[in-house]
Records
---
Amino acid sequence: MIVVEEVRNELFAGLRHAVGEAALRRESGREVSITVPVDRLADACAFVKGNLAAPLATMVGLDDREQAGVFRLVYVFSVDGKWVSVETEIDPARPRFPSATPRVPAAHWYEREVQDMLGLIPDGHPDPRRLVLHDDWPEGVYPLRKDFDPTVPVPRVDGPRHRFHHLHGEGIVEIPVGPIHAGVIEPGHFRFAAVGEVVLHLETRLFYTHRGIEKLAEGKRFDRVLQIAERVCGACSLSHAVAYCQAVEAIAGVVVPPRAAALRSFFLELERLYNHVGDLGNICAGVGFAVGTSQGGRLKEEIQRLNERLTGHRFLRGVCRVGGVRRDLDAVHLRDAAQTLQKVEAEFRRFVDLLLATDSLMDRMIGTGAVPFEAARDLGAVGVAARASGLDRDARRDHPYAGYDQLHINVPVRTEGDVRARAQVRMDESFASFALASEVLRSLPSGPLFTEVGDLPPYRIGIGVTESPRGENVHWVRTGPAGSIDRYRIRSASYCNWPIVALAVPGNMVPDFPLINKSFELCYSCLDR
Amino acid sequence: MLNIIRTSLRTGRVTVPYPEQSETGACRGRPHIDPDRCDGSSTCAEVCPSGAIAVTRTASGARRWQLDLARCVFCGLCEEACPLGAIRMSADFELATRSRDDLIVGVTHVPRDTSDAREENPPAVAVGSATSAGREDLAASGNYLGSRIRSLLKRSLHIRHMAAGSDNSCDWEIAHLLNPVYDVQRFGIDFVASPRHADLLLVTGAVTRHLEPALRATYAAMPFPRLVVAVGDEACGGGVLQGSYAVAGSVDRCLPVDVYIPGDPPRPQAIIQGLLIALDRLEPKMKRVELRVDA
């Protein structure tokens, strides 16, 4: 473990060497921020990523033309529990920047998104096609620029069609699927190039459920934005709500009371449990193992009913507020929670034993959809997908939040990277979650449920992180005047992991795609926003 | 194999007999307004994240308080904010209606000096509130469904689900209809892959710009007779997404909607109720509420 001060000194000395004297440094709390000239941006990012082995946590583009006459890019890296931001300013007269993607591959989608949403062009990006906006969106209209008026309808144009990568050769068949799928799932387009049954290449076209949430938050009061943050996603509602609240609390300098922090952890573990248990059932659906699907669905239902009894909501909405929580647990709730979790854990254990003892299921999972460690690391995989490929990262331990600094976090890691490894990580994590949830219930501190949040200082930045059931969510918030939100960047776990799915599929059979996809169990709505 | 049989035997039957029985539990359902406590002030409207509550002034000087359940996200902030305790969150979740209009709850505060027509107006009475009174009707409609489907559609009901830009909570609840607890197949209802095989289009989400063409194409591909059901606050009224550049706002701005199922998301039983209403054409529980108070 490197001491923070050493990190900073080493970082700064190295950066001076890498980008010259022009680097400016600013520190506050858990954040270090370095401003570099735009032509040295890629050098600085490559230095932080390479020398500190720091994963890219998020990247934000800002339109600061009104205040400072510039566009701004902020690449945020996670270094030893702290955030290191590499910032640069871009002249609106020349809205281009050198792409960091060739040296920091995890930046690939962020830079394409900045190009779509702010009109900043990443020079040298290996794949500069549109990402978020689709074909009928007009050229030159950038929704995240401050002078974009969301009340004026944007016309649909007959724009150039998205260029998919085509594979040519004898026997190669292209299979387009979606955006509407056969089952009850979210929309996205997949294009397979296959020879016989074997997939050679998979390309995804996503962002069909893009709802303009980041723009929607701009100018709204911080407490109202929480209602939007909660609705970025259904299955990760609480993770998003808590991440947003933490970002705002960091800006306000508010400390969440111990009882509220512990309750946040408890409900977050319930969220992880209902997702993981249900996802294991869904993996069974991917191979047509009906008994497993039913058992997973039934146990998930038990936990979601518990959610409703404890909080009034099956997806735990309305639990969190800025400064603490809105829901308390009384003695009846505590008894109910302890009994239900004990019962479900026993049944979940039998369910897991059944899965592991079913050879036909294991046979489909072992070796299927393997993601090598290097791919997971370089593309910045998070969550279950990262931990199943040997990447030991978990925000609950690496960036302790809520009540997790008081708890014993057991992070299961496997190295095979296949469907079975991802299923096994979910199983191990679920048992760890049952243990964590009971640990919180046994040691629930007393005290107030929230700290009042007063006025927020304008133009300050806060970063909130949670480990959702799908992995790390990073919420980057900058305040505006009078308690409003000026810029809100939501980077969900699915944002990091979708590109990994496209890597996991080639070499497998087409019919294994649903299984591989379900083993990642990513959200479209979290991604598309 | 023995393991599998043993697991199934040990589990037994887990299906909830809805609509014959219904447990509301502690769910956060419809907000109820107490017209006698409400003074028509706009505290609740200011905190409402989806603009479901509006306070307006009529030409005659009366104040009108209105709740639009199609837009409501059931967060309960209005209950917390009201200084007079006039709003109470209830566990009523069976809110599906055939008309958008039936999801409106209005309270008009008429100043005494202008209430010349007072004699002609009935005292403030809540009408059509969702109570357990309609339980037998609903149970009967469930039993009656098989024959009804046969007579109406000549085959069992096939649903094409379409996520038109939802936050996936509604879609998860729809997926839960197929688990052994809700088991919607017991009604002869099932989900199909192609819109060409579907009798009913079950739409979630506020209809994003990127999905609107797909939604229209899906509807166009369906055979007659066809039904459209909007599931959730975003599909019914846009929820917190109203005003975004990337959404149309609600399903009925794109397609004719036969049944609205409010909720954020609606519980699985609420979706079953909406499907039964769509099929049997019995009266839903919700009716438009108009209350009048002499202030």
Note: The CA atoms of residues 267 and 316 of chain A lie 8 Å apart.
---
Amino acid sequence: MRRRTIFRNKLLPYLLLTPQLAITIIFFFYPAAQALYQSMLFEDPFGLRTQFVWFENFQTVLSSPLYLEAARVTLVFSVAVTLGAMAPALLLAVMADQVLRGATGYRTLIVWPYAIAPAVAAVLMLFIFHPTIGQIGQGLRALGVPWDYRIHGGQALFLVIFVSAWKQVSYNFLFFLAGLQSIPKTIVEAAAIDGASPTRRFWRVIFPLLSPTTFFLLVVNIIYAFFDTFGVIHAQTQGGPGRATTTLMYRLYRDGWVNLDLGGSSAQSVLLMAAVIGLTVIQFRYIERRVHY
Amino acid sequence: MAIGRNRWLPHVVLLIGVAIFAFPIYLAFVGSSHDASTIARGDMPLTIGPHLIENYQQALVSPVGMRVRATPALTMMRNSLYMALAIVVGKIAISLLSAFAVVFFEFPGRMFFFWMIFITLMLPVEVRMIPTYAVVSNLGMVDTFAGLTIPLIASATATLLFRQHFLTIPDELVDASQIDGAGAMRFFWSVLLPLSRNNVAALFVIMFIYGWNQYLWPLIVTTGRGRETIVIGIVRMIGTGEAQTDWQLIMAVAMLALVPPVAIIILMQRWFVKGLVDAEK
């Protein structure tokens, strides 16, 4: 897109760009390049000697059982968070779309959890799911469930998934509702006149028309599950018990920040960057293709 | 669409959804109104207790209980507020300028610079945490306000949003102000900024929440307790999450941590929805 009319200054545009470019270069490009470079270095444990080792760190990381375990946890975690955050959001959005009066009121009542920090949501839920003092924790034990997320890995994983999904529903709800409201009512009514049942109308007409929104949210939710949920895990389980809730992001934090493994953590950073870039590229290509219909 | 549909079913489903969201907050609020021993015994009732005001006073001024010793919530809220505002103002200011440059000028390297900014969309701060920390540390900015906020300021979202908006501004408006003898900066201040008020408000809401809720970066870059934000502070307070701790204070601080961003989202809902949906397009 180009404008016909522009301002004719030689120096001014560069001056205007300088603040953002300076910050971008110093805090984005330089660190990213550093991560790439350091991912190919090996530093001895005393930090006295570094050696250029090409892709050895990647080999080490990718063949490490700890890393593969974290990858498996991340897979389960992000699939569960994505589904758990999107399915209820879609249900609520479909319902809100059918409400003739008060839809905005419901939007207000559903939208606000978006504003809660993941770590704060984690603390609230800890209070509720605590096995001895929490209302739900006590309730589960009263029902005979041996509930204690501090001991049982599966329960810990369930808890961090639940909190992460709980917090993300409102975001998905907003986008699904906007998507539903942009579907022309005439199409849905035409299907109804043709005798399609409400369920059939939803799956055959509404859901396919909603697919750009769904796909967009899929990518956003996966990225959310990868990175933004760090606060939930750090506050609730610290990756444990054992390593039951250690995701790739948490592994990176442990290795890079706590264990100070420079080369290994840089390799992990690079792998995660590649994952995000891959997801973003898929998203842009897909959306571009969908524009034409 | 409402052809022979159940009229009350949507309301029931929506109300259940609302209850699932509101219930944890209600319990936290109840928790902040009892004393430590009631909670630790595990028989907290579902109604507001007698220690509400006392707990919040304590949390705000000196949250020191039997097991917990935290920074006063007032201090932490001030830290969070300053951090969020610095991030918001910084992001909006640099993005307005760079979007203005990319849209209203023709200069060598224009698209190159635009792509340079655009590509930063792809790198969340989490994946480049350690090298970014190294940069901040080399610049001597660890545990400073600048080190906390500046690395979070650069982002493409705001630039893209302003660019989209600027592209919709008719050429005639630019012509008219040029005929009136206005230079580029004059046009920026007197025409472009007033026309961008809605977008600035929308970004303000989203970025404020983003800033207030930051976790990993403040966690690694602030070391002293004086700079602790409330989101970091609350997690430090729970420690290992024992039953015998001052849950009443922790819940009071948690309520204080979530009220400002929630209030902003509710009060400025119109701009929030607009900003969120536009920014992600």
Note: The domain at 1-281 of chain B is CATH 1.10.3720.10 (MetI-like fold).
